[in-house]
Input
Amino acid sequence: MLHLEANSYLQQEKYLYHSSEYHAGEGFRPHDHEFCEFFVVLEGELAQTLNGRSAVLPAGTVQLLLPGDAHGIGCAPGCKFVRIFNCNVLREEFQKEFLHFSAELEIAPDDLLARGMIPPGARRKLIFEDCETLLARRGKFGRFRNALLRTLLSQLLWVLLRQSGVEENGAPKWLLDACAAMHREENFRAGLKRLVELSGRTQEHLNRTMRKHFGMTPRGYLTNLRLEAVFQELIQGRCDITSAAFRAGFVNLAGFRRAFRKKYLVSPRQIKELGHHSGSGGA
Output
């Protein structure tokens, strides 16, 4: 079996991504690798054999592969064309990002489903748009390239976590329901008071429970939701930075900029410029 090692580019840049396209009868032979990998099926149906088990993966499927996983892929029978967004991740980089993502959930990558379906709707639309943006401007991102890839990886890990049942053995349903409701714009704009109302608990109880299960405070969770909303507004070129920040619920622009740079390692203006270039057809 073909064994793939991390090449010098992956070792230096931590992420290596591309589009894999196969027509009927085409594919890539079985292999394993020493790095991590994730892919998203963007169109068509993908046939995959993973660790001896075969499955057909429709558009919207996300697959996580860990070092040692053996798989082969190709265009599924009866399908004329399939296209996937594929990203290799240096093992150490994935471990670091997973630790950040899982915080105090006390879970390991093996605890997650290795494969899941991105729910149709706004979340799938945004993930597909991020994949297409990365592919359209491959090699022309500069230093905020990895910020986009980390954001995408985090979104996909969240999809797998929600479908794995891991959180159901830890965080109580009232907290999960409140957090899910906070993803709606009218709620995260309303702020911490709305989260407390949705939880039906005191703020002190909410603080303790959220720290235990999510490893962050309610205010930190709210800030992350708002930052993700601003990020999407800017990368899609929908409005200016100030309007996006105020729309998400930020009232202090200096604090917003500091939080944005801390989370994404680049400035809001850099993401805004990337969105502008993508929207104008630059490649």
Notes: The first strand starts at residue 2 and ends at 4. The longest helix spans residues 145-164. Residues 188 and 228 are 11 Å apart (CA to CA). The beta strands are 2-4, 15-23, 27-33, 36-43, 45-50, 53-58, 61-65, 71-75, 81-89, 115-117.
